[in-house]
Amino acid sequence: MATTSSGVSRTQTRRGNSCKNILNKIRQGQIKGVGLTRGSQFPVALLEERDKRAQWQGIPVLLRRLHESSHPNSDLSKIHSTVMDLSSLLSMEAMSFVTEERKTPQESISPNTYTFDLFGGVDLFVEILMRPTLTVQGELPILSDDLIKDCLSVLYNCCICTEGVTKSLAAREDFVTFLFSLMSNKKVFLQTATLIEDILSVRKEIIQLEVIPNLASLVQSFNQQQLANFCRILSVTISEPDVDVDDKHTLLARSTQQKTSTCPSRAETNQVTLVNIPGFIERLCKLATRKVTEAADASARLELEDWHSWLDNALVVDALMQLAIEEAEQSSTESSDESSLSSRLLRHRLPQSMKIVHEIMYKVEVLYVLCVLLMGRQRNQVHRMLAEFRLIPGLNNLFDKLIWRRQASGHVLHRQNQNCDCSPEISFKIQFLRLLQSFSDHHENKYLLLSGQELNELSDIYLNANVFEMEALNNTDRNLVCDGKKGLLTRLISVMKKEPIDSSFRFWQARAVESFLRGTPSYADQVFLLRRGLLEHILYCIIDSGCKSHDVLQSYFDLLGELMKFNIDAFKRFNKYVNTDEKFQMFLTQINSSLVDSNMLVRCIVLSLDRFESQTNDVKVVEVFSECRLLSYMAQVENRLSFLFRLTSIVNVQTLTQENVSCLNTSLVVLMLARRRDKLPLYLSALREKEYAEKYPGCLLNNFHNLLRFWQHHYLNKDKDSTCLENSSCIPFTYWKETVSVLLASGRSSRCAIASYIDEAYRDLDRDFLEL
Q1: Which of 333, 391, 568, 739 has the fewest Cβ atoms within 10 Å of its own Cβ atom?
Q2: Are 523 and 562 in contact (CB under 8 A)?
């Protein structure tokens, strides 16, 4: 009895393992490159015998049949039915994967797709698609558009459901290049673009656009809809890869990386390639500014947030738009069963509702590409083009009806390179604000954000103040500014003041307005914004609103600093709003709660104080100086020293980033102004006393010494950064360099050298900061 039982068990085990043996042989063949690598190499009888037991759904047999029917000299029109059979087996798994929002592909969840890939389906479909390019002799095989569509859809479904497929396709340069050429076929454009976007997003290296054959003619052949969708693909090719490890974001790591790579990155090269395509920027401007015709009956328009749960990109919207059009064109004689609620929604409500979603999604992609190009090496060239093609006036005309047609609900703040899963409307607003920030930042074209009437107002401010007009304002082409009475800047301030206090839109709004003020301080620009109640609104948000967001508060501190810098009228307004000790203490509490966030405002106050102290002949300045709580507070040396202690201790060379390097520069400003007044030894002595009082002698000054050495390494090779420092502080960069050199002097006899204030036992100045 035991023998019989054992024999049955062994037989069942052999039969159960036979299917696994086939899979193992295929796996080993694919890994080693020898032996059996595809299911088509197994006899049909064997595959059919094992199929039911393994529940392969006939996929290996179908693939074998497809392989035999798709050799180089075969008629590919006869394989379409087999391709459709395979497609139907895979499409439901892909739909389930997407609708259930699964994050990671799993074999148990998508067995059909897994089987398809294991038996060589992915490679076979790639071969079929590329057959016309691989045939050397004889007539080229003809693939119908429908066959190409189905093949592309199958490959995309595999990318969604089976781990590793997307990466394996991305590694095939020939296939990726072939897909770009396939985009010239309008009938298969959507399917091709969807697959390319998925493939490029997982590539380790960014593809080089310049190696794509006939790229310029390909882009020029796109209609506006295709060009907008193509921007989704371009966004992957022109953006630097996002780095997940925080250490890579430090200035030290970036400096080390730049040493090893002096050539432009692929992203930068791709940006140049695109900018040089004739008509490319002009067409993007037209896409960004074209209007949307809205239905008269507002009730027929679905709100954009309603689509968020099931529309994830513009390519899907394109497909649904086409479906809606086809549904609407069907005969009205179809049965009542077919006229379901969903189909009626498509025919009667979807097209108009989706027209708005459609256009907004397009504009998100287009604005992103323009924003990246504005921040690239071709910035000035792109700026000229955007001005010439009237991007800003066009966006101004869309502001009320589309861009900010209503206040949006709250959402999570996303940084510049973060993936965003926001609704289309929220993404659109954020991208719009990013574009304004990039457009205005340190560029004379910022005055295009104003209307002709507002430019006249700026000129009057200069005239009444008896101040020379900024050259950039005088050079602004009034044919390229915003139409009407209000420009984009004024409209932006209006919606910012109405924004819910906890809305993270405030962060991007403040950044966009601040960028208009960056650079050499302009009295007229500041007064223009002061007249619109901006300072009072910022102070309300900081002091009275209860705002808790560090990001929003930081953006307001930075904006307030630019708004008040060297402007005595702004300090007068500040004192009028902060008119009690309680309010002033609340303001100081907010500043001290995070000096990394508020240090730019501290720098502004210190710089302004220094200038006002030298204007003792100006009655207005003397009057405000005597009354202003903020100036009186900063005028006390002990308060400036308190800020200096903290600024020099909250960062070190290893933690310096683009976000907190301003703390180092603010501490330098404090010491430069002290040096001007021959008080640098006093400040250095105070730092030494602070070290001993806190019982860590040498720690503060050694750290500051290392920071200044890195400052030299970082800034002396950065023309843009050094120019920004000079313009924003109105201190010549030569004085910045001189002060750092004086502080780093090696002689113990110098009373202005850091080394003179560190006892020998605690000195640690010679270590290479790159090895720290």
Answers
A1: 333
A2: no
Residue 451's CB is within 10 A of a number of other CB atoms, namely 22
pTM of the model: 0.83
> CB-based contacts of 459: which residues, under 8 Å, 6+ apart?
469, 473, 524
Cα 62 to Cα 35, 134, 299, 347, distances in angstroms: 21, 23, 50, 38
* Range of lowest pLDDT (436-450, 461-475, 507-521, 733-747): 461-475
For 538-564, what is the mean pLDDT?
94
Query: What is the distance between the terminal CA atoms of the chain, rounded to a whole angstrom?
Result: 75
- Break the chain into its structural domains and give their ranges: 31-99+108-204
- CATH class belonging to 31-99+108-204: mainly alpha
In this structure, the dihedral spanned by the alpha carbons of residues 131, 132, 133 and 139, taken in order and rounded to 10 degrees, is 120
* Nearest one of 367, 354, 487 to 427, comparing CA atoms: 367
Q: Give the largest CA-CA distance in the chain.
A: 116
**How many Cα atoms are found within 13 Å in the side-chain-facing hemisphere of 217?**
4
Q: Which two tokens stand for residue 268?
A: 């930068």
DSSP code string of 13-75: HHHHHHHHHHHHHHHHHHHHSSS--SGGGS-HHHHHHHHHHHT-TTHHHHHHHHHHT-STTS-
d(CA 131, CA 75): 11
158-184 average pLDDT score: 91
Whether 390 contacts 480, CB under 8 Å:
yes
- Let me know: does 721 contact 733? Beta carbons within 8 Å: no
**Alpha helices, H only, 471-522:** 471-475, 488-498, 505-517
> Is 585 in a helix, a strand, or coil?
helix
Identify residue 72 by its one-letter amino acid code.
P
pLDDT single digits (tens) 273-310: 999 999 999 999 999 998 876 333 333 333 343 333 33
For residue range 178-201, what is the model confidence (pLDDT) as tens digits? 999 999 999 999 999 999 999 999
Q: Is residue 352 scored above 70 in pLDDT? A: no
Single-letter code of the amino acid located at 537: H
Q: How far is CA 636 from CA 284, 565, 608, 643, in A?
A: 54, 19, 14, 11
Report the distance separating Cα 7 and Cα 464, nearest Å.
Answer: 106
